[in-house]
Amino acid sequence: MLDIFLNYYPVLFKGLAVTVLITIISCFSGTVFGVFLSLGKIYGNKLVSNLVTAFIAVIRGTPLLVQLFIIYYGLPAYGVNFSPITAAVISFIINSGAYQAEYLRGSIQSVSSGQLKAALSIGMTKWQGIFHIILPQALRRVIPAWTNEFIYMIKYSSLAYVIGAKELMTEAKLIASRNYQFFNVYLVTALIYLVVIIIFVYFFNRFEKKVAIPGFDFER
Amino acid sequence: MPTSHLLKIEDLHHSFGKEEVLKGISFSLDKGETKVIVGPSGTGKSTILNNIIRLVPPKRGKIYLEDVEITSTKKINEIRQQIGFVFQDFGLFNHLTAKGNVMIGLTKVKKMDKKEAEELAMFELDRVGLKDFADSYPSQLSGGQAQRVGIARALAMQPKLILFDEPTSSLDPELTGEVLRVMKSLAEEGMTMLVVTHEMGFARSVADELIFMEGGNIVEQGDPEKLFNNPEHKRTKEFLFQLVDLYGEGEE
């Protein structure tokens, strides 16, 4: 096992770098997208709210792999071509955005309505209240769910290997198909995922504590 | 219709669903005056305050702030900057320190320079006796301190008047005292205040006028001592003495 790691770590780490890059871009962009979706759903007018609801229903109701195939294999028929990594990132942003919108909706609605009322009372507009008062609290509360989404995304980014994006799983599969040591190669790959996720979770938990509101919540 | 009052309310009506909670309320408030509204729960006292700054838009009637009709104005945000509001549950922004709570309206709404806003915030916190708690978060403050921050936040906007919606109803007697003392000193400094409260001691010692409401109507209004000692309606006397039984005469 160790020899597998020693022999192949440059390739595996190259794949890992792609995995982490895809995940970070998708997850953070997904957050921005998710913020807009959730705000549209909660505070938008009826049309916006319904459109967002429908969009989220479609994205959450269909497999990620299908979405990935539509973007990578389906869109070229209409003249839109993406590289495997770009196609993966686009579909992950859309998918993650839809899920994160729902996490955020929960945390936005958990912020007391009195907070917005108080914001209005000092002369803020509704959107000032949302951006300066509601979101700063809701975003703090969404960190645990967001961490979960990030972990999920690191692993689900391996789906990109199906369209040939050279991420960690793709590299692992290539190595194994050459040396036939499937068990060891995939075990090493699994360990790499595990270690990376533990490291990320450690930092996200520290961040969560760092931004916690003193005496309010998240204190353990 | 022009008036010479700071705040004038004309024939205010409000209903929640089919239930009519305000059935035509009219009164006015002059600069420097403190008026106290009392009455049983569910008579629409808080609704009046919420109607004034349109946190709950009134169904019918007119409200004027210095001759400007504010029930239908599109610039309600500007009106709200001129009318402070103190909430029963404090309504402090949980993610901001005491100072941050007082500052945010200055920086984000009044677009004041940060340093200037900080100075004003510290001045107002000092005014309510909380200079040493500027960096505390709301959940680290006692109820009385939190409510005083709420008052400082309203004061910092330099409003023309402040509305108090049962500011001491969620406080124990000791904490109630510290909040009422701040309110009393504001009244003495000439702040215009409209207060919904059950604190009869405060009403008797501070209010220029007591408004007794029941069932969505004003039953009687006038000098607090007159309402206590020589009310025109039997119901006024009954209710006021009930409050005194419950809450005591309060401190002078």
Please name the CATH topology of the domain at 20-168 in chain A.
MetI-like fold
Range of strand content of chain A: under 5%
Main sheet characteristics of chain A = none
Strand segment tally of chain A = 0
Question: Strand-and-helix sequence of chain B, N→C?
Answer: EEEHEEHEHHHEHEHEEHH
> Structural class of the helix and strand makeup of chain A?
mainly alpha
Low-confidence stretches of chain A: none
Q: Kindly report the spatial arrangement of strands forming the biggest sheet of chain B.
A: 6-7-8-3-9-10
Largest sheet of chain B: 6 strands, mixed
Nearest-integer average pLDDT of chain A: 94
Number of continuous helical runs of chain B: 9
- Beta-strand fraction estimate of chain B: 15-25%
Mean pLDDT of chain B: 92
Question: Care to describe what's here?
Answer:
The complex is a heterodimer of chains A (220) and B (252). Chain A is an all-alpha fold and 220 residues long. Chain A has a domain at 20-168: Orthogonal Bundle (MetI-like fold), CATH 1.10.3720.10. Helices cover 81% and strands 0% of the residues of chain A. Chain A has helices at 2-43, 46-61, 64-74, 84-110, 113-121, 126-156, 168-179, 182-211. In chain A, α1 packs across α4 (84-110), α6 (126-156) runs antiparallel to α8 and α7 (168-179) packs antiparallel against α8. Chain A is flat. Chain B is an alpha/beta fold and 252 residues long. Helices cover 39% and strands 23% of the residues of chain B. A 6-stranded mixed beta sheet of chain B has the order 6-7-8-3-9-10, with helices on both faces. In chain B, strands 2-1-4-5 form a 4-stranded antiparallel beta sheet, with helices on one face. Classes of the chains: A mainly alpha (220), B alpha/beta (252). Chain A binds chain B through residues 114-115, 117-125, 128, 132-133, 136-137, 140, 213-216, and chain B through 53, 55, 77-78, 80-81, 84-85, 87, 89, 91-95, 104-105, 108-110, 137-140, 153-154, 157.
